[in-house]
Amino acid sequence: MLLSTLLLSAAPQSALASTTSDTQLATDPVCHDEAWLLQTAGQGPAALYWPRAAWFSQLRSSGSGTTLDLLPGVDALCVAPRAGAQAITPCDFAFSTDANYGNFLDGDVLRIDPRGGLSLLLSETEISTALQLSSGNFDLDALHYADDVCFFSVKDGLQSASLGSIEDGDVLWYRLDDGSTGRVYTESQIQALVDNANPGVGAIGDLRSLSAHPSTKELCFTVQGPTSDDATLYGDGQGGRLIPGFAEVDYGFQVSTELDAFCFLEKQLPSSLVLDVDLPYTSSGQSIQLKVRHATPLGKVKGVMTRKRDFSESSYAGVSAIFLDQTSPLFQRQFQNGWMHAMQTDAGGSASFRWTAPDLPPQFSHVDHYFQALDLESGELSNPALIRLR
Fold first, then answer.
1. 244: in domain
2. Neighbour tally for 281: CB within 10 Å
3. Could you tell me if 167 and 154 are in contact, meaning their C-beta atoms sit under 8 angstroms apart?
4. In terms of Cα–Cα distance, which of 99, 96, 98, 89 is closest to 120?
5. Which of 264, 288, 318 is the last residue of a domain?
């Protein structure tokens, strides 16, 4: 009875998720496996929140070449606010990647660095050492962080001197303050929770994601299972239950899809303005199309551009941060000279505009241009997007 009262009185829950492979949504026909999707219970299908274009603007090139870095898929995601953060931005989540990236390992816990690139929050070595592994390769596969405790699961089976055999469906914990470890659930116990929630579902595979429900505080998870439930969220309350608003069918996927990461948000985020581009490269004098989706229908959107990225929190909604250098003369001239022409959105909240690249200075191999959009009706900021002139 108490649980039912909580669920009825609580505001609709929002969450971010990432998928195992590229997928399609009704309003976002291309969702890459490293993208973050926004889903709010009872508010219609999911939508893009942090697309590939945003990753390009964040990662740029790690080497000396002109090709932009592509992040391996995201296989763990949780809220991890920066010290002193006043708003939850894309820089306030911890995540792990499907494969090694740059100097980072696939078991490292990372964060989007406000200065650009990624930063390390928790190393694979620290966790694997605490587990006292005697065999197997550690690869983080699900993550939830609360009160200096990391709850997690691993991609493949391991052997631990302290915990014994570890299966890919187990839920483990690691305390950051004293380095202790333990087991919350075995894979067989997770199977029992799934069986109670969804009778007849059959044997599950790997546990894919973890998060705590903001209202009920129960531990929630997704698992590899029957194709129709690979993105369905389960909770450990009531001996195992389905979480309303987060079944696979609620996302509105246009193809069969499996979640690889899931993270509840503390506050509802009903929509997210997305700025995207088909190709992040252009050449001198070429015209390239930028696209806006999930804006206010029949409203107006303005865009701004700089040649240098930065980060500052903002009172605007959406990603709640400006990722452009506001001190640059180019940024300021766009306001002073009225160059930010408003674009009219269609009945679906979409719009597009074309940008013609300037000449590439002969002394440079490439020049980056960063874009961000603002919905004048809702006050939402889009993700940043990068176009590289080369």
1. yes
2. 18
3. no
4. 96
5. 264
CA distance 308 to 73: 26
Instruction: Find the domain containing 293 and state its range.
Output: 274-389
Place of tokens 């551009």: 305
Tell whether 63 and 204 lie within a shared domain.
yes
Cα distances (Å, whole numbers) of residue 138 to 50, 106, 168, 322:
27, 8, 11, 36
The answer to whether residue 134 is domain-embedded is no
Write out pLDDT tens, residues 86-133.
Answer: 999 999 999 999 999 999 999 999 999 999 999 999 999 999 999 999
Domain boundary among the residues 219, 236, 264 is at: 264
**Which token pair is 297?**
């229908």
C-alpha 282: how far from chain center? 27
**Do 239 and 278 sit in the same domain of this protein?**
no
Please state, in angstroms and rounded to a whole number, the distance separating the CA atoms of residues 12 and 14: 7
Cα angle 369-356-331, degrees, rounded to a multiple of 5: 40
Whole-model pTM: value is: 0.94
Helix or strand holding residue 37 (H, E): strand 36-40
